[in-house]
Amino acid sequence: MASLLNSASSLQLSSNYGAFNSQRNQRLAVNPSSTSVYMRRLVVRAAETDTDKVGAKVPDKAPADKGSSFNQILGIKGAKQETDKWKIRVQLMKPVTWPPLVWGVVCGAAASGNFHWTPEDVAKSVVCMLMSGPCLTGYTQTINDWYDREIDAINEPYRPIPSGAVSENEVITQIWVLLLAGLGLAGLLDVWAGHDFPVIFYLAVGGSLLSYIYSAPPLKLKQNGWIGNFALGASYISLPWWAGQALFGTLTPDIIVLTLLYSIAGLGIAIVNDFKSVEGDRKMGLQSLPVAFGSETAKWICVGAIDITQISVAGYLLGSGKPLYALALLGLIAPQVFFQFKYFLKDPVKYDVKYQASAQPFLILGLLVTALATSS
């Protein structure tokens, strides 16, 4: 199944890249016999062509003078322009997105009630984190950047793919290597855990398929703000939790339901990233929530999804006879609300990174509180 999926993916990648380059070349074409209007365009386009010839790949919007090396290696906006291919490869994998997946594995291990601080259990958890974070999340981010290259050419033209800093073959190779490495580690973990049914491998296959249809046509789940963001939230909260719990214990139906509900908070987190892409999403016909409802309404949908979900989980814990855990979770919601008003609700584009850095640690601590509550 994975082989068929990725064969189709590779063909689609090559086809789309050819079409993308064809359109780019058409924009650079000049006609010396044009009218004066076209002569003015000729000057601009000839300058672009000359720039290409000398190898300058940085578009006008690129933050070349103010870019940060730290932002570059994390894969976030404000990145320094880089020529080192290995740094560019890491940038495509967006390491800044790995911690929630790594933490999800920790939560799943805690929820199992069977994790012990032995060298073997620590080694198993580290391998599961490598599978979930650098490998499969890196695969997800790389393939998403590939299919978003035309949108990024509008919103963030200095990113590696639209700027031409990385080639078609390099992107496709990276997608394959990360995917196969992630699936290989998943199979290894099933053998290591002594599973009769390879549950972690199938979770990895399912997550990889979800990542593909999230970014790639014809389904391209991210075209719909509700479905796409929930899929993203489930990938960041539910899947690594399930993998960690299956590695050390048994994945039960009640945990599956609870984590899927918790993924509504992940939907809210995903919306945060949509505000900076409104211009490109609108031009490309993507119905992100800020495009569909407007920024003001989308801001409140975002914080509502995050806060109401956590309050509901706290209510569930209280109803389950675990008032201390419920109180701890409510205590972790309060600073999130504070930072929402201080940063996000004021300006979701200007303060998106600052808001996430300030508020999300409290959300992921709340996940651990919930995991510990379910294990007791």
Automatic annotation (TrEMBL):
Its EC number is 2.5.1.62. The keyword Chloroplast applies. It comes from the Eukaryota. This is Chlorophyll synthase, chloroplastic. It catalyses: phytyl diphosphate + chlorophyllide a + H(+) = chlorophyll a + diphosphate. Keywords: Chlorophyll biosynthesis, Chloroplast, Membrane, Plastid, Transferase, Transit peptide, Transmembrane, Transmembrane helix. It is found in: Plastid, Chloroplast membrane. GO terms for biological process: chlorophyll biosynthetic process. NCBIfam families: ChlG (TIGR02056), chlor_syn_BchG (TIGR01476), PRK07566.1 (NF005742). The keyword Transmembrane helix applies. InterPro entries: Chl_synth, ChlG, Prenyltransferase_related, UbiA_prenyltransferase, UbiA_sf. One of its GO terms (molecular function) is chlorophyll synthetase activity. GO terms for cellular component: chloroplast membrane. Belongs to the UbiA prenyltransferase family. Chlorophyll synthase subfamily. The chain crosses the membrane at residues 175-193, 199-214, 226-243, 255-276, 324-345. It is an enzyme of class 2 (transferase). CDD domains: PT_UbiA_chlorophyll. It is a multi-pass membrane protein. It comes from Salvia divinorum.
